[in-house]
Amino acid sequence: MNLRYIFTNAYYRSLKSIRDNYLFLISTTLTPMTLLFVVWILSNGKDLPFALAGGIIALTTSVGIFEAGNIAFFRFDLRYVDLLITTATTKMDFLLGEIFGALAWAFPGFIIYLLLDLYMHLLNPISFVLTLFIIGIVLISTSSIAFWISGLTKTSRNVWGLTSLLSIFMTIIPPTFYSYTLLPKPILYLLSIFPTTPAAVLEQGLFGIAPMDWSMLAILIIETIVYLVLGIYLIKWRDE
Amino acid sequence: MIEAKNIKKTYKDGTQAVKGMSFVLDKKVTSIIGHNGAGKTTLIRMLSTQLLPTSGTASINGHDIIKDVMAVRKTTVSIPQEINPIGWITVFDNLRLYLHARGLPIKESKLRAEKAMKEIGIWDIRNKHAADISGGQKRKIFVGMAIASGADTIFLDEPTTGLDPFSRIQVWSAIRKAKGQVVLTTHYMEEAQSLSDDVLMVDKGKILSKGSVRQLLKPLEKMVRVESMKKRSNSIPVGNTWVSYVKREEAESFVMEGDIIKPITLDDIFIKKGVNLES
User: What CATH number labels B2-216?
Assistant: First the structure.
């Protein structure tokens, strides 16, 4: 594993590029906040804890999924992936470099959410650690999906549309901003195809605002492994 | 050394880009020349493991491009034709990131990047964002990467396209000094002639000729090219012009008003072999 490349790439893709792309940072941070605001208004503040639990998942998912656009940009517009192929860099190095780069874009949002969670007395040391674990898992699974879909089209323009669509499907429809108990079980399990569903269920359980369903942890881990393997195998690396 | 055995590539849409090429390249600098769509880029992409051949194979310094992919990649650099640097980081950082990708340590990467930038004339712009520099300067970044890599085999797809004459000479000099074997594609016959120890001429996915510039030009030795607007006996049509090859000493008596006499170049080998240079 080429750790030097992974961390240098993450640094150049995140901290070094924020100056030129600060609007993306602001939009990434604020988009889940707007939904938080809507939920707060519509529920008279009652459902705010659900939106806080789901918002952090939605933020992680957006950043992970939008990696597809970045990868497509690197592949089709810069043609940089062609350059990387003939180096010691592997697909896994590239994926990890992207995941760590994505993490930095989500960082300000994480801080805001975690502060709000603390303010609302939703976090304790154990749920804090488990929340970080879930964020990590969701980032890996969504970035892996991003890797996969970046190889499905031949232009970066199509990928932008696809990621926007997928981001909506993965952050709005699953129980990220409402209680998962409102969903009939079959639909809940159907929606578990998106990693955001088991992650949101776990977050709601950790925050003590809905019953904990530990089976979702198994689902989340298994599907993350599946998406990671798919991401690594299905990303276009050597052309055929 | 690069050895190809009946390597072929047919794309999914049925286009036969490379129709079976076999060759051995063992000279320091080899140019692959041919017009647009001749199969140069496809060939280089296959040799550098970016593209899987449909059939046949090749080896780079004994490593098979299909079976020993990682061994080939670790010792090979390939700079694609239409590549762009990462615009939001500096020229220096672009080189360093690439060298990290090749697994070089931080200090070594810095030293090599500095040396390469000085060699190809981009030292003065090292702290500029890559988005803010000219197309030719961007091209030089990638040549710098190839030089700095210290790789055993370097593939350069049209490395000097868009460069001014001075920069082109700088790049040629750097290519000559590169540690490893260099294989480049080019449209510029002048470049192939002044830089190459060996030339591979390709057309429509096949090899037309291979050899040193001197060997290739041998059949037209002591001749000149005469370009006329009118058809002459044994002249070859090239666009609206008719090209004839005559002995140097007979040129004066052969030419008519309006004719142009030119020295022989590698272009003439294509013309003699009936390749439509405008296709």
Answer: 3.40.50.300
